[in-house]
Design a protein that fits this description.
globular, 14 helices, Rossmann fold, 3-stranded mixed sheet, 7-stranded parallel sheet, NAD-dependent epimerase/dehydratase family protein, alpha/beta, single chain
């Protein structure tokens, strides 16, 4: 059990990212100096929103040049820190070679950051952003789990290089993190495993994250004839940031934490928007039949393969979030608030 000194700086990888931005905000507001490891510290446009938060707080942000695939490049940013937050992760749905474009960067990046932490004196805790994708691939996996519910004890065994390689990359990266953690005893590792992350973003401009493209198709008329009733978990980005913060500063924090506020599906998510936005926007009001999706899905979107539709549509997702509530005191925001705050971003940016 390690107590962390809040007067010491902390390092955040991928500090300009969606989740990391809210984490950096929380850290600065708590008066903690942030060592932000970014690919290009001179790109002031990308860091402007963080500088603004820092100037309004009584803490400091310092930028360091680092690259996930450049060995040892995080070493300088870690000096003097007791906590390392590893949030950076390659995310692309546009890949040619899943091993080379997804798995290798995720695993090598994790190894690079954690091996540097291993070689840096004074590090007491490493918090890694993993994913519920390291626990399951499809909603049917939740139904097949003991008691029909996903827990932190479960590892994803159904993803592969050929099927859902992004999920597979998350499994391999988290396994690598635990392997390195177990090879030393200087710091302990905590992983945060969020489900689909929604909520407003800090940086100006529309986000390119997966969650916003889903939201866009719910709001721009793409799905007005019906939305796939696909089981999944949902969590607010601000709750995910809070979870990272508490994972670092709660001495008893240990192991993995499912960070998912709601067991839901796309139809329920769309329905939360109807009272406020239903009059003005072509939001879906019903589910699209599974048989129809099996016919048109693969043509409409390459991710909607028949095996994927079969294992996710009309299946119930259930994850147990009691560990994070009990041990880290996380109180999840209502789904309606998360959905409305997310949709408001698309409205303001004229995306819908």
């Amino acid at each position: 059990m390690k107590t962390i000194d809040k007067s010491k700086p902390v390092m955040v990888t991928g500090a300009t990212g969606y989740v990391a931005g809210w984490l950096v905000k929380k850290l600065l507001e708590e008066g903690i100096t942030v060592h932000a490891a970014v690919r290009n510290p001179d790109n002031r446009e990308k860091t402007a929103h963080l500088d603004e938060i820092a100037s309004a707080s009584n803490a400091e942000i310092k930028y360091f040049k680092a690259d996930l695939l450049e060995e040892g490049s995080y070493k300088e940013a870690m000096e003097g820190c007791e906590v390392v937050f590893h949030t950076a992760s390659p995310f692309t749905s546009d890949f040619k070679d899943p091993q080379k474009d997804l798995v290798d960067p995720a695993v090598k990046g994790t190894a690079n950051v954690l091996n540097s932490a291993k070689a840096t004196e004074g590090i007491k805790r490493v918090v890694v952003t993993s994913s519920c994708a390291a626990i399951y691939t499809d909603a049917v996996d939740a139904e097949n789990a003991p008691g029909g519910i996903l827990t932190e004890d479960i590892w994803n065994t159904t993803a592969s290089l050929d099927y859902q390689p992004y999920s597979y990359s998350k499994v391999e990266a988290e396994k690598k993190a635990w392997e390195i953690a177990e090879s030393q005893d200087q710091w302990d590792l905590v992983t945060i495993n969020p489900s689909l992350v929604m909520g407003p973003m800090l940086a100006g401009g529309a986000t390119t994250s997966e969650s916003f493209s889903i939201l866009k198709s719910i709001g721009d008329g793409t799905m007005k004839m019906g939305v796939p009733k696909m089981g999944l978990g949902l969590v607010d980005v601000r709750d995910v940031a809070e979870a990272h913060f508490k994972a670092a500063y709660t001495p008893e924090a240990h192991g993995r934490y499912i960070t998912s506020g709601h067991n839901t599906n796309f139809l329920e998510m769309a329905e939360t928007l109807l009272p406020k936005y239903g009059e003005k926007y072509p939001l879906p009001k019903k589910a699209i039949p599974k048989w129809l999706l099996m016919l048109i899905g693969p043509m409409a979107d390459k991710r909607f393969t028949r095996p994927y539709i079969k294992k996710n549509v009309n299946h119930t997702f259930k994850a147990d979030n009691s560990k994070i509530k009990k041990e880290l005191g996380i109180d999840f925001k209502p789904m309606k608030q998360t959905m409305e705050d997310s949709f408001e971003v698309l409205v303001k940016e004229d995306i819908v």
